[in-house]
Amino acid sequence: MTVAVLGAGAFGTALAIALARNGAEVGIWARDPAHAAAMQATGRNDRRLPGVELPETVTVSADLASFVAARTLLLALPMQQLDSFVRSHAATLAGRSLVACCKGIDLATGRGPTAIIASACPSATAAILTGPSFAADIARGLPTALTLACALERAGAALQSELSTPVLRLYRTEDTAGAELGGALKNVIAIAAGVVIGAGLGDSARAALMTRGFAEMSRMAIALGARAETLAGLSGFGDLVLTCTSAQSRNFRYGHALGAGEGFDASVTVEGAATAEAASALASRSGIDVPVTDMVAALVRGRVSVPQAVEALLSRPLKKE
Predict the structure, then answer these.
(1) Residues 156-177, mean pLDDT to the nearest whole number
(2) Three-state DSSP class for 29?
(3) Which residues are annotated as a binding site?
């Protein structure tokens, strides 16, 4: 086994399916033994990705030691759990290629996924896989293009070759900061887009929000060392378009519920909620103007109502674009 996916959520499972269909033997580590047993017995992940069969070359287990011999580990874990997981298992993960498959900014440290990996497990090769993708599309074998970011060019090229399939096309960059921040910040804007539609403000307002949101994403990312062209690519603009326009996006659905004044399933991971708070704090420390992010952070915490947030954004001083 050369590749293992650590995390049995929808995205990790979909990646395992795609790689197995391409001829790889793939392991999936599930934190919950009952979940692992059910997946192994049924050949499906009905809890997270119902209706899709696992190829026979996919093995599922709750025993992490079963998979750490794999040279490439895809860390398909919630962003806010990544730091504690890598630190807890640093000795086991040492020397491997660790590819983060989560999007966000850590609340406690203000770091992105590759910085967390580098800090907690410096002997590992850190990379991130991000971009416009829904797990259901990948699992069904629909064409998908993603960004693979790794600061080490040769290691990144090797991972690109290893993880690409005929229908899962990976584009490579060394700009880990840009890929991380694009994937993280677009989730915040997707929540705002959901609020716009849920509150009945219309598609024209959503288009304006997406445009100003992208300008905000780019401003913050470039100020923090990212390249403008990375934000204009799959991991920035591409992912923003997908998640702001589809109800398949958990962040969009969460925002829609906020805008409509409805409840939302607390068991569903919404990375953009924590990222809004982390990004707002990081921008404040760095002197970067991020009004949409600040307002989403306030909405998530219940510090403002939707009408108050809309009024605050619409009453900002007029300026050049």
Answers:
(1) 98
(2) strand
(3) 11, 31, 103, 131, 133, 135, 186, 239, 249-251, 271
Q: pTM of the entire structure?
A: 0.96
Are 125 and 98 in contact, with CB atoms under 8 Å apart?
A: yes
What residues form the annotated binding site for NADPH? 11, 31, 103, 135, 250, 271
Which letter does DSSP use for residue 164 in this model? -
Residue 207: burial class (beta carbons within 10 Å; 0-12, 13-18, 19+): middle
DSSP state of 317: P
Tell me the HSE value of 192 on the side-chain side, using a 13 A CA sphere. 33
Q: How far is CA 202 from the centre of its chain?
A: 27
320 counts as catalytic? no
Question: Which of 186, 206, 253, 256 is the catalytic position?
Answer: 186
Compute the distance between CA of residue 305 and CA of residue 311 in angstroms, rounded to an integer: 10
Binning pLDDT at 50, 70 and 90, where does residue 7 land?
very high
Can you give the pLDDT at residue 294? 98
Structure tokens at 218: 């780019």
| 29/121 Cα distance (integer angstroms) | 19
DSSP string for 115-150: HHHHHH-TTSEEEEEESS--HHHHHTT--EEEEEEE
- Please write the tens of the pLDDT for every residue from 45-88: 999 999 999 999 999 999 999 998 899 999 999 999 999 999 99
Q: What whole-number distance in Å separates Cα of residue 294 and Cα of residue 206?
A: 17
Q: Are 130 and 239 in contact (CB under 8 A)?
A: yes
Chain-centroid distance of CA 19 in Å reads: 19
User: In angstroms, rounded to a whole number, what is the distance separating the alpha carbons of residues 31 and 36?
Assistant: 8
**Pair 74, 6: CB distance under 8 Å:** yes
Given its phi and psi angles, is residue 316 left (phi above 0), alpha (psi -120 to 50 degrees) or beta? beta
Q: Which residues are annotated as a binding site for sn-glycerol 3-phosphate?
A: 103, 131, 133, 186, 239, 249-251
